[in-house]
Each structure stands twice: as structure tokens, then as C-alpha cells.
Design goal:
- 40% of the residues lie in helices and 11% in strands.
- The protein has 267 residues and is of the alpha/beta class.
- The protein starts with a helix and ends in a 35-residue tail after the last helix.
């Protein structure tokens, strides 16, 4: 990445953001062009090489760890300190401790929400998710407990953080969504967001990341709106959001799907 930035006169933060866009674009089941993409064929080959290296890093890490946040570490070291973005994410050990404190030693018994095409699931939300570390720790904890996969909801005002979270959720096989918005002032709105890993449910195929701008697609936005309605009218319960809002289906493949794996047969 440093060589790429030096060769083409591109800052590290821009290089990292472009790499995140490239990976998300590759995981779009509809194959839509990345909005605003301005890189040439030679540079695209460099991004492909970077993506391959990232997958190899994650393959090695996930064999030994429950979860790993490579992009979060990279973001803090390069994009954070050297470009004065100034973000410092929660250390992994603290994330694991918070997940242990939240769920304890027994499977959670809480109301479940109809999460669109993912069925009824426990939701785990982080309204300032950063790179999604707390969500990954929660998903890992529930998996160790033998609980059903939760539906993860990540929210952040920083677009680059949302991209990192979406990729982290994708690479860890999580179900959920990531919303880029101001969760404090405009929780029911969305600049954009991602639905992650539709392709892994209900029949495992390929990991996916799909981009949307309609806030009604996202469970997180609908949860906030339901809470506001409940304040105005106490008889309205949050259960109203269990009615699913269907997103437009992904384009059907022209040929029969092929079972693939990012990590090979050993993973």
C-alpha cells in the first residue's frame, strides 16, 4: 500500500478507502460499478493483489482466533495517526470482556426480530461501531455458546468505518447490516448502508455485501423509528418492526451457482 501511494501520488487514507471500496465492489452480487471509481487497469491489478493479501492474512488469523480486525489495526496505525483522523478503536481484549459481561454463560433469551430475509433473530447493535469490533466479539461469544447467529447492526457517521465493518462482518460470516448515518441526531435516516451476507442464508453460497440508500431497508433505522412512535403513543410496541421490508432481490446468475470458499477446504 505504501508503494502504491508513493508510485501514484495518493495518500494512505485515500489508498485504504479505495481498497475498501474495491473489496466491497467485488462482493456485490449484482456486480454494480463502484460509484466514483477513477482508477485504471494497472491500478486495479494492484488493488486485486492487496485484496488477495488481505484474504491470506485473515485466513491465517481466523484459524487461530475467534475474530480478527486487520483493517482496524491498519486504520489506526496509518490512516489514524499519519493523517490526523484521530480514531482509536476499542482493544480486542476489552471487546471480548464486554461480550462476556453482556451475555454471561447462558444463551440469551430475549425477543427476536424478523430481520428481512434472515428470519427471526436476536439483534446486536452498536450505534458507534468503528470497525465493528464489538459486533465481532459478540458474534464470536454467541457462537461459542452454541446460540443461533445474531443479526448485527453497525452504525457510524464515518463512511470509512462503515466500510471496514461491512468487510469485517462479511469475512467472518456474520449476518447483518451497516448504516452510515448520525445515530444521535438522525437515527431514522441513512446516507447509505450495506446488507451483509445475504448469499450465506439460507443455503451457503458466496459472501456478499450489497449497498442501499433507502433507510427503510435497514432494521436499525426501523428500530429507532419504532421507539419514537412508542414514546408518542405508549400502546405502540417495538414489535411493529417485525414486519419485514423486502429489498429488491439480487440479480439471478446466468448459470448455476458454484460453491466457493474464500479460505479453502481447511477453514
Amino acid at each position: 500500500m505504501e508503494k502504491f501511494g508513493y508510485r501514484y501520488g495518493i495518500g494512505m487514507a485515500e489508498t485504504l478507502s479505495a481498497l475498501l471500496d474495491y473489496i466491497i465492489g467485488c462482493m456485490d452480487p449484482e456486480g454494480k460499478p463502484v460509484e466514483g471509481w477513477r482508477y485504471n487497469k494497472e491500478q486495479n491489478q494492484c488493488f486485486y493483489t492487496m485484496m488477495s493479501v488481505y484474504f491470506n492474512i485473515m485466513q491465517d488469523a481466523l484459524v487461530h482466533d475467534g475474530w480478527h480486525d486487520a483493517f482496524g489495526d491498519l486504520f489506526m496505525e496509518w490512516a489514524g495517526s499519519k493523517n490526523a483522523l484521530g480514531q482509536c478503536f476499542t482493544p480486542a481484549c476489552i471487546c471480548d470482556m464486554m461480550a462476556d459481561c453482556t451475555f454471561g454463560d447462558t444463551k440469551p433469551d430475549v425477543p427476536q426480530v424478523n430481520c428481512n430475509g434472515f428470519g427471526r433473530r436476536i439483534t446486536v447493535s452498536d450505534c458507534a461501531c468503528g470497525s465493528g469490533r464489538l459486533l465481532l466479539a459478540a458474534a464470536s461469544k454467541l457462537e461459542r455458546m452454541g446460540a443461533e447467529k445474531p443479526y448485527l447492526i453497525g452504525e457510524d457517521i464515518d463512511a470509512m468505518c462503515c466500510k471496514q465493518t461491512a468487510i469485517n462482518m462479511m469475512i467472518h460470516g456474520c449476518f447483518g447490516e451497516v448504516i452510515c448515518h448520525d445515530s444521535l441526531c438522525e437515527p431514522g435516516e441513512a446516507r447509505f448502508g450495506y446488507i451483509v451476507n445475504e448469499g450465506l442464508y439460507p443455503f451457503p453460497a458466496l459472501p456478499t455485501i450489497r449497498r442501499f440508500t433507502d433507510p427503510n431497508v435497514f432494521i436499525g433505522c426501523r428500530l429507532w423509528k419504532a421507539r419514537e412512535q412508542a414514546k408518542e403513543s405508549p400502546r405502540i410496541k417495538e414489535a411493529v418492526i417485525v414486519e419485514p421490508v423486502k429489498a429488491e432481490p439480487a440479480a439471478k446468475p446466468k448459470s448455476a451457482p458454484i460453491q466457493l470458499s474464500l479460505f479453502g477446504d481447511d477453514y
